[in-house]
Amino acid sequence: MNGANHNVTGVGLVVRGLRKEFDGQAVLNGIDFEVQPGEIFVIMGPSGSGKSVLLKHLIGLEEPDAGEILINDESITAPEIAVKYRMALVFQSGALLNSLTVGENVGLYLTEHRLKPADEIGKIVLEKLTDVGLKDAVHKMPSELSGGMKKRAAIARALVIEPQLILYDEPTSELDPVSSVVIGNEILELKRRTGVTSLVVSHDRDLAFGVADRIAFIAEGRIVTIGTPDEVKNFKDPLVQNFLHIEFQREP
Predict the structure, then answer these.
(1) 7 pLDDT exceeds 60?
(2) Which CATH superfamily is domain 10-86+163-247 in?
């Protein structure tokens, strides 16, 4: 692991009274939660529960009908937020550009904004790829990577800005169980190594219980419960228990 890594300060996140309707249908119905600096906070729930719409609000793609989102007690709509705090999103698909090498993808933000000299960008890219176990993939094309490797490359791309908050959108979707464990371990390792705050949106029960400090279970546009993995597992609510224990049923 590269010794150049340094500890960053994770930020706190507060969502208060968030409401959103589409065509008169409430999709978010008064969402409230707080994420502590350096915490891994997982938002878990079934498809159609409001997870994706909530994430769009967190990254500024949707505006709420009511409520607010704060980072370190400052509204995310404040003009200085983008400059004051470093936030990154790891897309569900990885969102790598197929025309660029893995290294070029990882360093794209620094290159496009001319934030560093080319040789320094190369060093940073190699450092971040090494951190996620992809040092040897720097010159490969995305088409040469497995699904899990693409997700790890996307994490490396997020790391180049030394983020204080990372948002993960379904980071284990379409991955096999082994690759999912690798991604979960990477999320845990980043917390240990950098102190970054992580918010993970997922329907993956194994990931949620494997990495979370706390879990918010969302269903029908509202938070049903928030607690440690053990507290959520033992929460006696039909929506939660049905989701956690549903299995495929075969016809006799």
Answers:
(1) no
(2) P-loop containing nucleotide triphosphate hydrolases (3.40.50.300)
